[in-house]
Amino acid sequence: MFAKDALGKLVVIRGNDPMRGAWEHRAFVPAPLGESMPAMTPRTMIAVSNARAALAALDSTARQLPNPTLLRLPTLQREAQSTSALEGTYAPLADVLVADEDEPTTPELVEILNYVRAANHGFDWVGEGRPLSMGLLTELQGLLMRGTPLAAQSGRLRETQVVIGRRSDAPPSAFSVQRARFVPSPPGSDLQAGLQLLVDWMRADHRDQIDPVVAAAMSHYEFEALHPFRDGNGRIGRLLIVLYLQAVGVLSEPTLTVSPWFEARRGEYYDHLLGISTHGAWDDYVRFFALGLQQAAEDTRNEMVALSEVQSELKEMVRRSALRADSAHALVDLAVANPSFSVRKVESDLGVSYGRANKLVGQLVELGVLDVVDANAYKRRFFAPRVIAVLTSRGA
User: How many whole angstroms separate alpha carbon 170 and alpha carbon 206?
Assistant: First the structure.
């Protein structure tokens, strides 16, 4: 399968199955990224240009909103649900949006809400002007795996060989590594060196040689080919797309949800990544990637606009009521920024007493601005139905 030596090398790996004995196979070690763009057709360059325009429109919309950070959590929760689904961890989006982040009820929700925490940590890191680093990547992976069975093996580079997928033509009698669709770099110093080279590459200024969309595509491939962690590589790799675009100034507010588009096309997505390793199919991959970023940017922008409109409409409902307190409008902002919340959060965020917070929530429920997730729950959580409707309406 591997026809392009310049893209990497195949190295011998060996192991021993306690039941079946010794095995030998090959793993793929990607070559470091170059300092120029891969050769691309005009069709692909047009796709890259369209992606840049869509990202610019998204960023312009975010800059025009009074407080774009209000919309970060709801769009991030959607990203968390989709990027986790790509890795086989699925929970319905509506369940994610109304989940209690402090007490998730299923292992799936634990992992999905972990992604939200990891992403926010990364966004804050880059937003403070700190460069991407190996330390950040290991922190993100550790946050992603917190509270899961792999927590003890996380927060550091993997120390064992991993394999990805399974070939449909693999004989059932073969060892699992021999049945794998792709076998990434073996653990050890070469893996660490490869990831450090990638981090250094992402920190360098490529603006004169490589379009940021192409650079994001290149670095995403390299990370996935290295597969540096025991688990969570796909989720960290897709998060790095947004972190990179934020770091190079393409996005000022990282409210880009890339995974829903890739989730709907997961077979093509994985095929394009593999195609670079096997025969250097950069052009097809970059065009696919750019189309995904364009659609993701357009969808995210539409979602931001819709959430902003809902925010204005809900505040108008409050204005037409007998309520006149500024705290009622502040509660609308909280309901847009947090798809579900408790009275305690209202108390904390609005700086009012618990009694006042409880009364205020009740008044907005009576107005139809808010509703309760489960009226019989010990810790009741509330949500704005109009907000949830926007977040669950996007098609792939």
Answer: 41
Per-domain residue ranges of the chain: 5-303, 321-391
Question: What backbone phi and psi angles, to 5 degrees, belong to 17?
Answer: -85, 125
- Percent of the chain, pLDDT > 90? 69
pLDDT, one tens digit per residue, over 84-120 is 888 877 788 888 888 888 888 888 889 989 999 999 9
Contacts of 165 (CB under 8 A, 6+ apart): 180, 181, 182, 270
Q: Give me the phi and psi of 14, to 5 degrees please.
A: -135, 155
Write a three-state SS string for 58-121.
Answer: HHHHHHHCCCHHHHHHHHHHHHHHHHHHHCCCCCCHHHHHCCCCCCCCCHHHHHHHHHHHHHHH
Residue 374 to residue 216: CA distance in whole angstroms? 42
| Sheet architecture: strand order including 341-342 | 341-342, 381-383, 371-372
How many angstroms separate the CA atoms of 331 and 8, rounded?
54
The predicted model scores a pTM of 0.91
**147 backbone dihedrals φ, ψ, rounded to 5°:** 80, 10
First vs last Cα of the chain: how many Å apart? 32
- From the list 346, 383, 308, the residue with the least C-alpha distance to 67 is 308
Average pLDDT over residues 58-80: 86
For domain 321-391, the question of CATH label 2.60.40.10 is answered with: no
Q: Which two tokens stand for residue 221?
A: 């491939």
Q: Give the SS3 label for residue 273.
A: helix
Cα–Cα distance, 268 to 151 (Å, whole number): 31
Residue 184, SS3?
Answer: coil
Q: With respect to CATH, is domain 5-303 assigned 1.10.3290.10?
A: yes
Summarize pLDDT for 109-164 with one digit per residue, the tens. Answer: 899 899 999 999 999 999 999 999 999 999 999 999 999 998 998 999 999 999 99
Contact 289, 237 (CB under 8 A): no
